Prior knowledge:
- Pathway: Nucleotide-sugar biosynthesis; UDP-alpha-D-glucuronate biosynthesis; UDP-alpha-D-glucuronate from UDP-alpha-D-glucose: step 1/1.
- The protein is 45% helix and 15% strand.
- By secondary structure, it is α/β, with parallel strands linked by helices.
- The protein has a six-stranded parallel beta sheet with strand order 3-2-1-4-5-6, sandwiched between helices. A six-stranded parallel beta sheet has the order 11-10-9-12-13-14. Strands 7-8 form a two-stranded parallel sheet.
- The longest helix has 32 residues, at 198-229.
- The chain binds uridine-5'-diphosphate-glucuronic acid (UGA).
- Uridine-5'-diphosphate-glucuronic acid is lined by residues 122, 152-156, 209, 212, 216, 250-252, 254, 257-259, 261-262, 317-318.
- Uridine-5'-diphosphate-glucuronic acid (UGA) is lined by residues 122, 152-156, 209, 212, 216, 250-252, 254, 257-259, 261-262, 317-318.
Amino acid sequence: MTIxxxxxxxxxxxxxxxFADFGNKVWVVGHTKxxxxxxxxxxxxxxxPGLKELLQKNIKARRIFFTDDYxxxxxxxxxxxxxxxxPTKETGEADLNAVIDVARKIGKNLKSKLTVVSCKSTVPVxxxxxxxxxxxxxKPKSSEFAVASVPEFLREGTGIxxxxxxxRVIIGSDSKKAIELLIKLHQPINGKRIITNLASAEMxxxxxxxxxxxxxxxxxxxxxxxxxxxxxxxxxxxxxGLDNRIGRxxxxxxxxxxxxxxxxxVRAFLNTGKKLSINSKFLExxxxxxxxxxxxxxxxxxxxxxxxxxxxxxxxxxxNTDDVREAPSLYIISELLKxxxxxxxxxxVAMENVKKFFENKIxxxxxxxxxxAKTDAVLVITExxxxxxIDLAKIKKIMNQPFxxxxxxxxxxxxxxxxxxxxxxxxxx
Length: 429
Ligand code: UGA
């Protein structure tokens, strides 16, 4: 098949490379000339494990093409995906400007054959109907199209694996032909197929991300209880998670959830609830607990650090990505700076993206040891593998004082005690 994907972020580019790798011809449409030039040369711009190799392989095979031109790409495609961002507006609402603008451009460039316009961007319920109206208004009279909602469930850091092995592929559409074509395109991909209508597909995405955020906030809430009672949150949640009805995944407490999806989607879902006069206190609480998780980590550090010189390990919102959008590290660093802390940091790939937020207010080091040398305390904010087997004895030797604040529970309290650290973790005695 020939397909077009508008957008080349973590969702657009991963999806494009995977579909190209199956043998399809894939156009990727963007609007920033410099970015397109880098992509054409095989530089994915973002860091996602395996993506560079997959991109270069498919450029070489002449299956993936980058352009800012909707005419060539859309007019020869059977399926066009919209995969552009839907950031949060000040009101908490999802900003649909990019999605609607893209829909207009797709509409103008439709040819006479049936084109399926599928939205992968996370959009509030009802948006695909708006996309349909916009396309209808702008398309040439003779052209035919159908809209579909195909929400994305890939996680950053495991994007390629998740695209190939999703738990489910959701196809929401009122058009039989669109459903048939999308089933054909997804044929090599694993996972259960759920065929549904537009509104349900849109709702599935928000319900899923809201549930994930809620699970994390629940885990953080339990960790607060544990901290005040001497219970161990890991043992508690290991046991709770053994109940098949509950499950263990996404019950890891820490410094809170971040990223470009969970925080934004919970806010947008709350906004939809408000418009529909639905009492969504349940979700408001998830959001509030997330902020409390970050604040209480800051308080523990501020109240217990023996000095103001600290080293921070991990800046990205989770491991295996360079993405720092709504990363807890940004909030924690800015709060600690206000309290006069002197901060050195290290992250395997995200430092470049953090520099613009703090300029020279914090320093960036070449490796974890440089970041912790001569500090009074080390803070672990992202659980990169690189930190899990770090030489702890060496760390202790090069620090001024042996204080560790582990925001992701990556070290064992017993071992840390044996090594002579003063060790603080989340919800564990
Ligand atoms: C999330 C969803 O997991 C994907 O299914 C979805 O496709 C994606 O959003 C999206 O909407 O595009 P992602 O933002 O990449 O994926 O990251 P997650 O793995 O969900 O992690 C989000 C945050 O929660 C991270 O900051 C992570 O550290 C935190 N987290 C996760 C916890 O604090 N505890 C946990 O148990 C799990």
